[in-house]
Amino acid sequence: MKPIRKFIVRAVVPPQLSALEELAANLRWSWHEPTRRLFEHIDPLGWRRSERDPIAFLGDVDARRLEELAHDDGFVAWAERERDALRTYVSEPRWFQSLGADTPRTIAYFSPEFGIAAALPQYSGGLGILAGDHLKAASDLGVPLVAVGLFYKAGYFSQAIAPDGWQQERYPALDPDGLPLSVLRRADGTPVQVTLAVPDDRSLHARVWQVAVGRVTLLLLDTDIPANDDDLRQVTDRLYGGGGEHRLQQELLLGIGGVRALRAWSELTGRAFPDVFHMNEGHAGFLGLERISACIGEGLAFGEALQLVRAGTVFTTHTPVPAGIDRFDRALVARYLESGLLPGIDPADALPLGLEPGVAAEESAFNMAMMGLRLAQHANGVSKLHGEVSRSMFASLWPGFDADEVPITSITNGVHAPTWTDPALLELAEERLGTGDTEHADWLSTAVSDAELWSVKRGMRLQLVEDARRRLAAAWADQHAGAVAPDWVRRVLDPDVLTIGFARRVPTYKRLTLMLQDPERLAAILTNPDRPVQFVIAGKAHPADEEGKRLIQRLVQFAQRPELRERIVFLPDYDMGMAETLYPGCDVWMNNPLRPLEACGTSGMKAAMNGALNLSILDGWWAEYAADDHGWVIPTADAAPDPAERDRLEANALYDLIEHRITRLFYDRDHDGVPTEWMTRVRRTLANLSPELGADRMVREYVERLYRPAAEHAALVGANGAKPARELAEWVAGVRAAWPSVHVSHVESGGVEATPHVGDELHLRAHVALGWLTPDDVAVQVVYGHSHGDDRIEDARVALLEPDGVSNTDGATRVYVGTITLDRAGAFGYTVRVVPRHPLLLSTAELGLVAAAT
Ligand SMILES: *Cc1c(COP(=O)(O)O)cnc(C)c1O
Fold first, then answer.
1. Are residues 157 and 254 in the same domain?
2. Amino acid 7: pLDDT
3. Ligand 1 nearest-atom number relative to CA 415
4. CB–CB of 538/125 below 8 Å?
5. CA-to-CA distance for 143 and 164, rounded, in angstroms?
6. Do 484 and 607 have their domain in common?
7. pTM for this one?
């Protein structure tokens, strides 16, 4: 029978154990091992059955067992100790509180997905898990962050694999009552509702769920409420489920509804309304328009409000592929903007924010990344290489400037160590190194021997093997009407065989099937009698991605070959719960994207934190941290004549590395059976990389390099009733209008001889027309450096020229002079340019205006 309605009946926890409910209600349990141990102690089997989800667990646990524990003074005291520790954790001063004044009041962090725990499946992959790790690290550091997202009734999707290898998607509906959520309510108990005007005189309403993530509150907007028309109830049905209008509605709700929810939250809690807004990818870009609308309501013009809003906004781009960016039909966006959605905003002002440079307005899509970059004065990519790629990819927004001047910096992603470090490793560090801080533990210390660490790694591998067998048996039963799985399923994988992990979403660039370039060679690697290898693979293809599903099918069918199936497995339904045992259980973590399409990649970081060595294309984070001690680089064959040849070359290199380098090192054992060379690398990986790859490091960087400057800048332009913002807007408009008449008429040089030498001085005298601008409005610069055949200045340096009156030929042209020293030998080139200058601009390129000598 199929029930017509389902709900969760929460267990009645005896009052003596109320601490358990308080602990279950804050997701800190998801990264706090002592709290997990407390729950596990109640009923270890039930704890595992509930997939370590305290709320599901408390709903399931035998009432008699709870009664018994309620009278166990030791247990009651233990639970209360943990509860007190949680209360201390959420209230004591932490790193951020040591920064003193001049820090942001509140930072609002917007993301379309959040991966915090398997128990709250509101993520699809890396972007969401990163967001979850960001919140957890912000909590640990005491950063006053509040997060905003959507509550998707079916989350992403859960994956099953049919016997023929084809991916099947299921969308089990989540019941908010069974999740660690509470409705945001007004003092009188009524739920807060945010409302957006949508076309045809309708309204879209959403309630607001609150999630406690340590010290951080996450607000999730949910449209599945009776106040909505049936179709509008579905707006938050699934994560990345629909295209076009459905997706636009989600993003309008996230951005605009999110800011409205924050207002209510701020009023109700007394917490300061955010002074910094961070968009994790472009999906939440509409938040800027909602804030502009509010400023207009307070009397500012659009351009003035834009300056105010930009100053406090941070935009993080995550994709180096234009196809990965959300683009909407302009007419559709216009229809929404014309429906009274954003009071005070003329759609004619808002629509250009989404224009794609170089495309005629009528033909341009409404591009969310372009809007994000225009609405944020502070922007970054997520690894050094991705920063570089982003500066090129978006360079057309700052025409006339070289890519390295594009104002997009980078902060390399990190992963939350307490979440991603296996408890066995944590225990070892606590016992032997005297610290639970695995990120900064001295892993090279002799207090831990190779043999001990090796044995802990084996335990983690065994745990993965057992988990894989359980999952495959359950998947078999699921696909064969409850039939018991055949014997071989209970024999897959071996806890003593070199284990390579490979799990990812399945967009084409990640090349799930690169390893199948030469299937027989891979088969030989897997079944090598002396140095066998096993692969654990997982990943979901987007439901609309048929090509991705074909890749999965090829891999699954390969893994079904009877002689291989115990050495290579595809585990269905990759999620955080699986990831928890997968990363620690691997000896090698493999990643073979098409360079440079992996913006950062975080799975390899999580593996490294558990002592796995990386085997990866030099892309994303690995381009910064690759070293012999940390793993192996798969050489990139980007000079190959075509993609097929490139795949072939890179796959061959991959096989060679596994056959000749990796397996040899792994199976080269001392008399105790320990691979000492291997363990040296494991220890160096843990020692060198853990402190670097942590989300702590990442969030500190965000605070210091982006949040703090953004808050300061917002305060500056917002002072005195936003007077500086008004002046800046007026100045920007004036400069833009005047710019066509700004140019460098000619440049005279002197000082160097026919054959210049290092140390010679070059004197410059530039004649510059400024139209009606004054010398205060501009900077005249000489840009110089190496210049070879391609007419570009490399490693350009910039020096200011100084005003030296007006030219005596026309009395209007201004003269600028300066001297540079030729301090490097080789081909030299320079040019002179005029750029706008204002104390409230953060970068030379900011306005995309430049007039260079021709
Ligand atoms: C870390 C993680 C990802 C992201 O991995 P990438 O290397 O960035 O592709 C995706 N899914 C899950 C479950 C993860 O834990």
1. yes
2. 60
3. 1
4. no
5. 49
6. yes
7. 0.96
